[in-house]
Amino acid sequence: MFRIILLGDSITQMSFCSPGGFGAHLADVYQRRADVFNRGYSGYNTNWILELLSTENNRDILFGGPSQGSMATEASSVCTISSDHITSSNPLPSGAVRLIVLFLGANDASCSVLNARQHVPLETYQKNLISIMQISKQHCPYAKFILVSPPPIHHEGRLQYQMSRYGPEGATGTLERTLQLSGQYAAAAQQVAKDMGIPAFLNLWSEMQDASPTSWHEYLSDGLHLSPSGNEFVGKRLVELIHLHHPELAVHPCSLTGLYGNSASQSDMIQHGPWHDEVVDPLNYSHLFQKKTDDSN
Known about the structure:
By secondary structure, the chain is α/β, with parallel strands linked by helices. Helices cover about 35% and strands about 10% of the residues. The protein has ten helices and seven strands.
């Protein structure tokens, strides 16, 4: 089956374990059509993700296998991500990565004084995002991208988290992450998406605040990481962006049940194995399993 890669920090790492996590939501949407790989690394910034990408072994682990052959040009300071060039005479290889969701910046946007260990300067952050996408495209030439900005920071939620984790004596009462800083990095990510021709950009910083101006903090569990409602918000928006900008990757649920994994769901991405209700004759079904129901041919 095809592959979808979620590449990010702890917000991504937790996207399968949190109730209604956005990673789990995508896995549900793409059941039997694409495998969703969680490549979230708690605490990582873009510098450290680039270190992971610097070795062949780590690249293979990140993207689920050896390079599928480069269709990208040599890396430059700014490089536009091109289309797939997929035709009937040039089919996709088995297990091709079709989508990469890049969700980084929450740690980069830490205060340079209070959290120098994770902080990455704004311009370096932008250059790192470009390099990460260039390397990813070279390794996964058939992949499309969704770039996600860091979320907004709720100051009161972060201070309450300090108190709950470190107690009155350990809590500093100062903020190593702020709404203003995360907003600057969100704007920087948006500029990168524009420069690189990435139409599917999710400005989580602004969209969460716009969606619930007086209660957007409920999207966050500790002022930073996503709550169940925040995960639901991100999951829905990612699916909407796929439908809008990459319709060839969209899955339409069954109109009656809302399920993504039955014969009434629709997608250009072929499912693996025949749907059970296609097996009508209990004695004559082998031919159904021999037709192309995956991307292996």
